[in-house]
Amino acid sequence: MEEEIIKIAIVVLATAVGFTIAGVAGFGGGVVALPVLVWAFGVREAIPILTISQLFSTASRVWLHRAAMDWQVIRNFSIGSVPFALLGSLFFVSIDTAVLVRILGVMMLLFVVYTRMPIGRNFKMKLWGFIPLGSATGFASAFLGIPGPFSSVFYLAYGLSASAYIGTSALGMSVIQIPKLVVFSTNDLFVFRVLAMGVGLGLLAGASAFLGKVILGRIPEAVFPRIITAMLLISGVVLLVRG
């Protein structure tokens, strides 16, 4: 019993820290919380728990940054993401993801190198590019649970401000959770403990998103891309170690 309480306390702390970071950087909640959830509950319960809590977190960020969102980006991202989130969810219920987690970690580190090179600094994302980006992100979200680091580079390369990026990407992520929830529910992954932990951590994630917005308001716009680069580096290392 004491061990269970300690595990839950660590999960709560990781969720609060992770989703506060997500409120500032637009991602990071899953990167911080998922390894702890896997340790506490196993991967089969960790991904559904994170899916529920992410829905609360992204909905909070959408509301907090609603005035700055880019609806054309959201439309194109959703066109690509919804069917591939469904496909990724179907893969998740039957396939081991350990190798893909390491691949995603390597990708994050490559993105750090890419953003520091002239070709990366000068890259401009086109509106149509959010359709294939949504496809890749939707699949990664359903399969690995942590797509945020992958897409952040492209949102910023499109030219969105910090607030517009966080609100727009959050709504895109909210849409992705819907097919995941459908597939997970039809495969009996939403047992009572998963639902209870998901909702509880989701409420905490929503409050953490508000704290993240307060912190974001104190960060100069020019410093924001450096925060994203640092988060990509940390994400890549964490995924490699976790994998």
How would you concisely characterize the structure shown here?
The protein has 243 residues and is mainly α. It is 81% helix and 0% strand. The protein has helices spanning 2-25, 29-41, 43-64, 71-92, 98-116, 118-121, 130-144, 148-157, 162-186, 192-216, 224-242.
Overall shape: globular
C-alpha end-to-end distance: 29 Å
Give unreliable regions as ranges: none
Helix fraction, binned, reads over 70%
Largest sheet: none
Beta-strand residue fraction: under 5%
- Helical region count? 11
Q: Tell me the count of domains.
A: 1
The secondary structure category is mainly alpha
- Tally of strands: 0
Q: What is the average per-residue confidence, as pLDDT, rounded to a whole number?
A: 80
Q: Could you give the order of the helices and strands? A: HHHHHHHHHHH
Computed CA radius of gyration, to the nearest angstrom: 17 Å
Offer a few descriptive terms.
243 residues; 81% helix; mainly alpha
What would your notes on this structure say?
The chain is mainly alpha-helical. The protein has one domain. Helix content is 81%, strand content 0%. Helix 7 (130-144) crosses helix 9. The longest helix has 25 residues, at 162-186. The mean pLDDT is 80.
Topology, element by element:
Elements lengths: L1 H24 L3 H13 L1 H22 L6 H22 L5 H19 L1 H4 L8 H15 L3 H10 L4 H25 L5 H25 L7 H19 L1
Helix pairs in contact: 1-2, 1-10, 2-3, 3-9, 3-10, 4-7, 4-9, 5-11, 7-8, 7-9, 8-9, 8-11
